[in-house]
């Protein structure tokens, strides 16, 4: 009850502040990143209870039905043929999410154009699925979007999971297109997420990172999501307080990620 009351008071203060400073303001944008099956949708659903937050889930249904074509299924079945087409459309739909206006001061997005480029497109290049010429085209589009469109982020929540855990989750959720996803594919994606968000080894990180250990069973992970509520929302208020125009940082972030580690359960 006390935690609920504190959350209520915090949001009331936040709401009053934003009402006083709402003109020409971008929303505080949080990118929810992680491997396939890491619990991103569940994380976003946890925040549906807060009326000052807009949730934008990954546009999977658009990928599954573009004028009747299931691009996600085509990509998984024949990646060498369809990866370029699929990732081109992913970029388009992700840019739409980044640019979509929201009526609330905080926006949570499931994945982003950054993870599309730094994790999925990068993985396809390294595994020979994309020809280098195809990669060059996708990378040029990404650079153009970065330079000419407002796709800044203020915070990244990284749902860190073990490849074996998400492999089992994918099997259980039985999404038809994903049944052919091998463990190695998940291992490769995991390492790219780690190198991008934790090790900062090969790509720019557009915002500070909060790491949540998401290996817990999805029925138990809610407790860990609750721990992140104030972390996310205090940062939102802090950024707005410091910058009346809510200008996101343009330079790569180099600071160490913040870890939210679950308590031991006996």
UniProtKB/TrEMBL annotation:
SUPFAM superfamilies cross-referenced by the UniProt entry: P-loop containing nucleoside triphosphate hydrolases
GO MF terms held by the record: ATP binding; deoxynucleoside kinase activity
Catalytic machinery residues: 110 (proton acceptor)
Residues spanning the membrane: none
Keywords: ATP-binding, Nucleotide-binding
Sequence ranges assigned to domain Deoxynucleoside kinase in this UniProt record: 31-229
InterPro entries xref list: DCK/DGK (IPR002624), Deoxyribonucleoside_kinase (IPR050566), DNK_dom (IPR031314), P-loop_NTPase (IPR027417)
Positions that bind ATP: 34-42, 169-173
Superkingdom as given in the UniProt entry: Eukaryota
Family the UniProt entry places it in: Belongs to the DCK/DGK family.
Protein name, UniProt field: Deoxynucleoside kinase-like isoform X1
Originating organism: Galleria mellonella
Record gene name: LOC113518318
């Amino acid at each position: 009850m006390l935690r609920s009351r504190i959350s209520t008071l915090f949001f009331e203060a936040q709401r009053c502040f934003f009402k006083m400073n709402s003109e020409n303001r971008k929303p505080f944008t949080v990118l929810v990143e992680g491997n396939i099956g890491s619990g991103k949708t569940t994380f976003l659903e946890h925040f549906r209870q807060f009326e000052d937050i807009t949730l934008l889930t990954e546009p999977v249904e658009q990928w599954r039905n573009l004028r009747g074509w299931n691009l996600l299924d085509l990509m998984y079945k024949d990646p060498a043929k369809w990866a370029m087409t699929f990732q081109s459309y992913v970029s388009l739909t992700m840019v739409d999410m980044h640019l979509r206006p929201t009526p609330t001061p905080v926006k949570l997005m499931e994945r982003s154009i950054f993870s599309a480029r730094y994790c999925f497109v990068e993985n396809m290049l390294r595994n020979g699925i994309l020809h280098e010429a195809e990669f060059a085209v996708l990378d040029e589009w990404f650079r153009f979007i970065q330079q000419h469109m407002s796709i800044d982020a203020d915070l990244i929540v990284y749902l860190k999971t073990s490849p074996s855990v998400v492999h089992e989750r994918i099997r259980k959720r039985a999404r038809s297109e994903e049944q052919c996803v091998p463990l190695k594919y998940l291992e490769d994606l995991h390492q790219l997420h780690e190198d991008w968000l934790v090790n900062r080894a090969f790509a720019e990180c557009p915002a500070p990172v909060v790491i949540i250990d998401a290996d817990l069973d999805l029925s138990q992970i809610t407790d860990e999501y609750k721990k992140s509520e104030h972390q996310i929302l205090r940062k939102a208020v802090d950024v707005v307080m410091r910058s009346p125009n809510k200008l996101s940082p343009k330079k790569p972030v180099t600071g160490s990620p913040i870890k939210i580690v679950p308590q031991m359960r006996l």
